[in-house]
Fold this protein.
Amino acid sequence: MRPNINISHTLNGRVKDYAEQQDMSLEEAYQEIIQAGLEAVEHPDES
């Protein structure tokens, strides 16, 4: 499922590709990516 936000079809396609590569659902992929992104912006020095 695509979140109800305005993102490009290209970006959505990249998430779909990631989900397929990781053998997870699209929802799981979005959750993982969003969580990783939040961690990165909340703790930028820990990368």
